[in-house]
Structures are given as structure tokens and as C-alpha cells.
């Protein structure tokens, strides 16, 4: 018995996919939403890791560094960099899609 396979129609070359989602097919709102979501997630992820690292640093070395520094000096810069990269990447994909007429 042969197994049947679902095939997708051939897509234009140069458009990648992540988990089966074609990256070039996002609209403006979806591109902005993804960019801000990635920046938001990066901010909280970096802040969490910085808080945990600072916790071990404070407890292990008997230091007294303020935990608010993790937001200012780790979370905010990482979040803003990821936001800028996301806006540039998804904005480029959106502009390329508009110029190609798709």
C-alpha cells in the first residue's frame, strides 16, 4: 500500500517559510504586530534572565545591586534592538511584497 502525500503548490523562489508559514505573505498590520510582539517577548525574556542572574550574583557574592537595573540596562536595550530588527526585517518583506505586485 502506498502512502499518499499532500503537496503544496510551487511557490515563488526566494520566499522562506518558518514552521510552514510563508514569510513574504504578511500584510502591514501583521508585520507590525509580529515586530512588536518579538520586541515585547525579548524584553521580558532578557529581563527574566537578568533578574535570575542578578539574584545569583547578589546571593553568591553578598552584593546589593538593585533589581530595577535589570529593566533599564538589560531588558530595555534588548527589547528595543529586537524591535528595531523586527521592524526592519518585516518592513522589508512587506515593501518587497508590495513592489512585486502580489
Polypeptide structure, described:
It is a single chain. With 102 residues, this protein is mostly helical. It has one domain (26-100). The protein is 66% helix and 4% strand. The chain has helices spanning 28-61, 68-100, and strands spanning 17-18, 21-22. A two-stranded antiparallel sheet has the order 1-2. A hairpin with a 2-residue loop joins strand 1 (17-18) and strand 2 (21-22). Helix 1 runs antiparallel to helix 2.
What are the defining features of this structure?
two-stranded antiparallel ribbon, about 100 residues, single chain, elongated, mainly alpha, 2 strands, about 5% strand
What's the structural blueprint in terms of helices and strands?
Elements: E1 17-18, E2 21-22, H1 28-61, H2 68-100
Antiparallel strand pairs: 1-2
Helix pairs in contact: 1-2
Q: Which geometry do the CA atoms define?
A: elongated
Main sheet makeup? 2 strands, antiparallel
Structural class: mainly alpha
Beta-strand level of the residues, as a percent range? Answer: under 5%
Helical segment count: 2
The value of Rg in angstroms is 21 Å
Q: Uncertain regions: pLDDT < 50 for 5+ in a row?
A: none
Count of discrete structural domains:
1
Helical percentage = 55-70%
Mean pLDDT: 85
Find the count of extended strands (DSSP E, 2+ residues). 2
What is the chains' assembly state? single chain
The end-to-end span amounts to: 41 Å
Major sheet strand order: 1-2
What series of H and E elements makes up the topology?
EEHH
Amino acid at each position: 500500500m502506498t502512502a499518499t502525500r499532500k503537496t503544496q503548490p510551487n511557490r515563488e523562489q526566494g520566499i522562506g517559510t518558518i514552521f510552514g508559514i510563508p514569510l513574504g505573505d504578511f500584510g502591514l498590520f501583521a508585520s507590525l504586530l509580529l515586530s512588536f510582539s518579538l520586541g515585547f517577548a525579548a524584553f521580558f525574556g532578557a529581563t527574566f534572565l537578568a533578574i535570575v542572574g542578578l539574584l545569583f550574583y547578589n546571593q553568591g557574592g553578598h552584593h546589593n545591586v538593585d533589581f530595577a537595573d535589570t529593566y533599564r540596562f538589560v531588558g530595555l536595550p534588548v527589547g528595543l534592538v529586537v524591535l528595531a530588527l523586527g521592524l526592519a526585517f518585516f518592513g522589508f518583506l512587506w515593501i518587497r511584497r508590495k513592489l512585486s505586485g502580489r
